[in-house]
């Protein structure tokens, strides 16, 4: 049996370089775990170049382009199911319904 690594118990000066080395979607996944994890990810101050928001008849599409050439796409469907998706590149990372907790995958 393996023991989980206590990442958030590391000292600040050790933790921040580790978070900086994480992939973008790993940071997103970490940030939804707890308020403390979200605070640490916010301290990284990931800057975006620009973002596009497209309002369509049945959905809202938001593309965020970051300085490191990464792109995040969030698609929110406006229907009775209200499904939301996080997409990076061609891979879907999260899918959820508002009001339910985001899955960490």
From TrEMBL:
It comes from the Eukaryota. InterPro entries: F-box_dom, Zygotic_Embryogenesis-Asso. Residues 4-54 form the F-box domain. It holds the Pfam family F-box. This is F-box domain-containing protein. It comes from Caenorhabditis remanei (Caenorhabditis vulgaris).
